[in-house]
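In response to reviewer comment 3 from the previous cycle, which asked for concrete evidence that the modeling workflow produces usable outputs, we include below a single protein chain processed end to end. The sequence was submitted unchanged, and the resulting structure tokens are shown without manual editing.
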Amino acid sequence: MSVEPEIFALLDANKKDDDFNEGRVLEQLHRRHERNRTGVRKKIAQVLAATGKLACEACGFDFQAVYGERGKGIAEYQHIVPLSEARERKTRLDDLVVVWANCHRMIHRASSMWTVEEVIWISFVLWRNWDNADPSTPHPELVFPLLAPLGFSGVFNTF
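The workflow returned the following structure tokens.
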């Protein structure tokens, strides 16, 4: 595991100042793009009706399959064309994808956002060895249909 050198610079074994202040209330003014929660609920209902589960459309992870009832309904969403790249507009359900928090975080991690397709691709590159995969790793058959519109075949080793 690689850790940035700056993080190690924060740790000094000779110092005893491992406590810090938090919790102060700050006032902030933000501009953000309006999101319509009704549209999100409709997208989640659409995915549930079509698949019977609420799995991440980027990596296939299903919180309920792993965490049981506690994981039911855990999902975020991503606009295929980010709201920041367009003015006010009509959004269709097909303009949204259901993602889980880690994939969503990776999409937004830098100023040049990744697309959902890029996250799908990276997920497959990282999860090449399906025989030794973690039990929560989705089987390729669950995720290959997501790659078909991108032109990828169902034969994994041809990527």
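The longest helix spans residues 37-51. We consider this sufficient to address the reviewer's concern, and the full set will be provided in the supplementary archive.
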